[in-house]
Design goal:
single chain, mainly alpha, Ferritin, 10 helices, about 65% helix, globular
Amino acid sequence: MNLPNPRQRALAILGLSDPIEKAAQARALFAGIDVQAIDPAPEYDAPTTLPGRPARPRLVAAKDVPTRSPSTLEGRAALLHAVTHIEFNAINLALDAVWRFAGMPTAYYVDWLRVASEEALHFTLLREHLLTLGSDYGAFDAHDGLWAMTQRTAHDITARMALVPRTLEARGLDATPPMQARLRQAGDLRAVAILDVILRDEIGHVAIGNHWYRWLCARDGHDPLAYYAELAARYRAPRPRPPFNDDARRRAGFDAAELAWLHGSP
């Protein structure tokens, strides 16, 4: 892929439809990154077919994705498939954050290229585990909530930082420990270990979202907490529901006022 600007390469990788190739390319892009080659200035035209996707999984409404118990092999595969799909979408949204938003500091692009690489590793680990369960990515229906919010915030970088990493991805910090408990009870210790890696990295990803959200608010003169509520209403973001993983959220950069807002306090 002979494209000099890593932002342009991120756009090309985002368009790949083979998830295995996309994950490999995302990891290779960050591993071989030339920071000096990052040019924040160009604004690229978006192709009409973003992101590239495989033919399966079939995308359905979230309410039509059945919930299955991990106590059975099929149920465990279905649960882990849902997480695998989230990680595939997370590769896409990190790559999108790199190419789409011009004029940011170089460190912003390095951060999101790192996120894309780590999400690609998560996808790969989960898919490899799915294969040991007699399944594969694409075997179950999936929904598209994460990418839908990415589309809604395509022209507002502050909203993107507020509502994708700090809202939708932060839900993973809350959901992962209970999921691990269910998988541990089902005896799938490999899945539990993979989710340990994912939780560790996702704390860092949410922290990156928090950092750049606050940086943008400071640049533009917004109060972060008040402006978050305004953006959440404007873009119809779901309000996170308890239980919350307060410890992980603190490590990801949420302050006391934000945690109080989450818990419904004034």
